[in-house]
TrEMBL record:
PANTHER family according to UniProt: KINESIN-LIKE PROTEIN KIF1A ISOFORM X1, STAR-RELATED LIPID TRANSFER PROTEIN 9
GO molecular function, one term: ATP binding
Sequence similarity: Belongs to the TRAFAC class myosin-kinesin ATPase superfamily. Kinesin family.
Protein name: Kinesin motor domain-containing protein
Top-level taxonomy: Eukaryota, Metazoa, Chordata, Craniata, Vertebrata
GO BP terms: microtubule-based movement
Length: 71
């Protein structure tokens, strides 16, 4: 498997019923291959950013994930 590489995909999961009931807010931002997590309890804290090969929102269809990721 010389030259093989691993590709990483992440997906924001939909809010569960508890989070919906609490009127929770999404703390994730995605721009291109960068996913950023913002801590609303610590507004002065620097957001945490991560890079992935593929990033998907919760409303992206499962078939859409596979079609794009397998290219």
């Amino acid at each position: 498997m010389a030259g093989a590489s691993v590709k990483v995909a992440v997906r924001v999961r939909p809010f569960n019923s508890r989070e919906i009931g609490r009127d929770s807010k999404c703390i994730i931002q995605m721009t291109g291959s960068t996913t950023t997590i913002i801590n609303p309890k610590q507004p002065k804290e620097t957001p945490k950013s991560f890079s992935f090969d593929y990033s998907y929102w919760s409303h992206t269809t499962v078939s859409g994930h596979w079609e794009i990721s397998l290219l």
